[in-house]
Amino acid sequence: MTVKWANNVVLLGGGSPVVIQSMTNTETADVDGTVKQIMELADAGSQLVRITVNTPAAAQAVPLIRQKLDAAGYFVPLVGDFHYNGHKLLSDYPECARSLSKFRINPGNVGKGDKHEQNFKTLIDLAIKYDKPIRIGVNWGSLDQNLLAKMMEENNRQPNPENSGEILRRALVKSAIDSADEAVRLGMPKEQIAISAKVSGVRELVDIYQKLDRLCPYSLHLGLTEAGMGLKGTVSSTAALSILLSQGIGDTIRVSLTPEPGQKRSAEVDLACEIVQSLGLRNFEPKVISCPGCGRTSSLLFQELAKETQSYLKQQMPKWRGKYPGVENMTVAVMGCVVNGPGESRHANIGISLPGSGEAPVSPVYIDGKKVCSLKGEQMASDFKKLIDNYVQTKFGANQD
Question: Domain limits at 371?
Fold first, then answer.
């Protein structure tokens, strides 16, 4: 699948790297607020951003959002999220359709009976007309109830009926595949279709996507829906997505965290990037290696430097990403004592080994395996940042030639 806007082309499937997606939680009609959040999500590493298109006001806002993003140099493709009235909004507001890079369609929410078939056909016809890829997004909270009831009845007539959970999972898979197949029958290229079938249970999600991977040729979008908040949401999302990605299943992912009060929406992007990067599938930002600390370490000192270094690298990445290609592969070590500190620092691109309890109050710095200097005193953090900046400019700036 090719998703594009201006000079930004995002490839899904076909051996392309896993793509990170996110979704705004602003009212789309709030143009400035939505633009601001999209920028934050893109800066965090989101390569696609989905926005709700649920009202005429939202549809009218989409072209304005696109214009403001382009003017600011943010060419991240936008995905329109449609439920219930998407066929009407896309028909009534053609500039909205043109400004979006992809349509997300939930087959459980496009109408009942004959209206379901006609509304779905309208959405596919519009996607073809405007040359937009689509995602068929099935969710167990909005599954086609007629399909589920039919499959439950068929199961109940069997001599040895299966449990209802298995039938629900099969219904999700069938709804996603049948809808994608119908889109192909209506003229949609199968290469321009991604499908998803989301639930909020880890084991159920793994089972569903293993089935999808065996049964269909379409790109797969992964996500544990309604994952929750904080540690619970982080652990559940990481467990589910890591199992599937490590099996080679999934072309694009979204982490659906409930933000904690005051937490930035981009936290879901941070976690998605960390999952993909920790599996060695692709890098999004430099990796900071730091030890957990023990009785040998001056805990507060090295913890503060590790935190400050990690925050600094994340802050710099929106600027570095385009200017210094390859910088995302850099490793930085911040270690806390003489036991593993020098060794880990030598293995990193740039590393510092802070003094532990009873050690001399100096911190040797290693660059590409060689000791280059030692830092100490109150300026150590700022001096280390300067060394990182110089390394980035020297090591990765040449890639611009």
Answer: 287-398
The last residue of a domain, from among 248, 263, 279: 279
Q: Which pLDDT score, from 0 to 100, does residue 298 have?
A: 76
Q: Which two tokens stand for residue 277?
A: 């990067």
297-336 pLDDT tens trace? 877 888 999 999 999 999 999 999 989 999 999 999 999 9
How many Cβ atoms from other residues are within 10 Å of residue 179's Cβ?
23
CA distance linking residue 37 with residue 47, whole number of Å:
14
171 and 140 in contact (C-beta within 8 Å)? no
Low-confidence ranges of the chain (pLDDT < 70): 398-401
Q: Which two tokens stand for residue 327?
A: 């910088």
Given a contact cutoff of 8 angstroms between Cβ atoms, the answer to whether 96 and 79 are in contact is: no
Give the residue numbers of the binding site. Answer: 291, 294, 337, 344
Annotated binding residues for [4Fe-4S] cluster: 291, 294, 337, 344
316 in the same domain as 226: no
Q: List residues bridging with 266 in a β-sheet.
A: none
The count of other CB atoms within 10 Å of the CB of residue 360 is 10
Q: Does residue 125 share a domain with residue 172?
A: yes
Q: What is the pLDDT of residues 126-184, one digit of tens each?
A: 999 999 999 999 998 888 888 888 999 999 999 999 999 899 999 999 999 999 999 99
The tally of domains found in the chain comes to 2
- Give yes or no: residues 294 and 271 share one domain: no
Is the same domain home to 185 and 331?
A: no
Closest CA to 2 of 217, 222, 193, 138: 193
Same domain, 131 and 179: yes
Its pTM surpasses 0.90:
yes
Q: 200 with 255, same domain?
A: yes
